[in-house]
């Protein structure tokens, strides 16, 4: 009972904050970028919550259950990406666009913007979709199976749609400070209790050494290609994360954007490390539990992804577990809100507004249009989620699609004056198409040479194709005019 009570009370708290903040939304800029006045502490909270979602709570936890501390390579890609974006955060804020694709249009052309928009909408709907899937698992565990995963996913979908549509970016940033604090407290409090539930740290280590000693190593049993394959998706996504760029545009100034990135790095490292550590303790706890393994002895990936919530529900004191479940609500809601907000912003700003509405359209009408887009896109994301088995698979595909298509052209915008419009367009097209083609071939059971590639490795050929076209085509085409690159280097 305490799990349900704490979860519902926390949801009511968040609803109250959103209703209160919705009164501050007066125009399109308030709805999309929170009026461009967000202070550092709020920006840190929302940036951390942007990254820590179901991909971490379920995907990273499931990967850790199967590989041990080697899963930290998956997280480390994002840590490196955060360091990279530190050097461009201030410049992004100075450009002060609504969306990442506005930056693509300014540096390349309108075609690059449209390709980027399509990529973001498709990939981010997958990411929003696995927040729904995570919510479905969450509700199934909380209700002891009374609510099945599919029904739970739909309930999560509707809840996230409502939260996002009420007040837009203002509501997201306002509740993320609460979500961020709760995530950190719950995970760090749960960690020692999880260890104690298995008899202490010595017992945990002994169990792992007796079953899978390689779990305690970052590299043992893992070839360099595997390490590269799991680093690239998170690195590429982080440096091309449209919601992060949109939130930079919400900062009160360039200095606030840079400071927030530093805070984000500390918060993300701390949370992802403790998630990994709890999942490893979970492996020790459930090493002989048949629910977590298939008949052939291999790991049941879908069940492994629930290991942290299972610990919260089955192994630790109820007050700790209740905090962990409330943190689960925070993780799922904050990330689902953000990715629905970004996809709806891209659809409204990049496609509907320029092609279907006059530039002088009433700002309140534009807000209503975006709210409708949030509802439609959220339901579409729910439909898309049925095409994937696990959160981890969805994460690899969506991260790679976004990262391989947008990360090279974005970094080139800020660090390579010689990159050309055609080079950027070709790079985006290659990066977005290879993961999609690979998935289609996999579903169809068709093979061409080394395609389809295993999901763990799909980032490698996608990035190679994107980078190759970016560099070769740029060098074969005339240098860009100075006014194309100067705003990105000043």
Class by SSE composition: mainly alpha
Please give the alpha-carbon distance between the first and last residues: 57 Å
Report the mean per-residue pLDDT as an integer. Answer: 80
Note the main sheet: none
Overall shape: it is: globular
Please count the beta strands (DSSP E, at least 2 residues each): 0
Beta-strand residue percentage: under 5%
| Fraction of residues in H or I helices | over 70%
- Indicate the CATH architecture: Up-down Bundle
The CATH class assignment is Mainly Alpha
CATH topology: Sodium/glucose cotransporter
**CATH H level, superfamily name:** Sodium/glucose cotransporter
Number of helices: 20
Q: Compute the CA-based radius of gyration.
A: 22 Å
Number of domains: 1
Low-confidence stretches: none
Output the helix-strand order.
HHHHHHHHHHHHHHHHHHHH
